[in-house]
Amino acid sequence: MLTGRAGGTGSTMYTTLSPCDMCTGACLLYGIARVVIGENKNFLGGEAYLKQRGVEVVVVDDAKCKGLMDKFIAEKPELW
Ligand SMILES: [Zn+2]
């Protein structure tokens, strides 16, 4: 899920799905200022914690991201 300019303080992170605990921690560790999340219906991650720590959180609620996750969950239930 880590994309973009890793380690850049003040960077924006773009994710397909709401970030899990590990990704939430990585965002905080690397000083990510803003996280743009494709969708959070299939999984709701550490958004509240990010906000609490001063990170701007934007949930796009994008149908393509939701569709991508729905397809992945249907095809690879053992990985989900
Ligand atoms: Zn993660």
Describe this structure in words.
The structure is a single chain. The mean pLDDT is 92. It is built from three helices and three strands; from the N terminus they run E-H-E-H-E-H. The chain has helices at residues 21-29, 47-52, 63-75, and strands at residues 12-17, 34-39, 56-59. The protein has a three-stranded parallel beta sheet. It is elongated, with a radius of gyration of 13 Å. It is of the alpha/beta class and 80 residues long. Helix 2 links the parallel strand 2 (34-39) and strand 3. The site of zinc ion (ZN) has 5 residues, from helix 1. Zinc ion binds at residues 1, 19-20, 22-23.
Q: How much helix, percentage-wise, in residues?
A: 25-40%
Computed CA radius of gyration, to the nearest angstrom: 13 Å
The helix count comes to 3
Give the mean pLDDT.
Answer: 92
Q: What molecules are bound to this protein?
A: zinc ion
Return the structural class.
alpha/beta
> Which outline best applies?
elongated
Annotation, overall tally of beta strands: 3
| Low-pLDDT regions | none
H and E string: EHEHEH
Hey, roughly how much beta strand do the residues contain? 15-25%
For the record, give the distance between the C-alpha atoms at the N and C termini, rounded to a whole number.
15 Å
Tell me about the biggest sheet?
Answer: 3 strands, parallel
Strand order of the largest sheet: 1-2-3
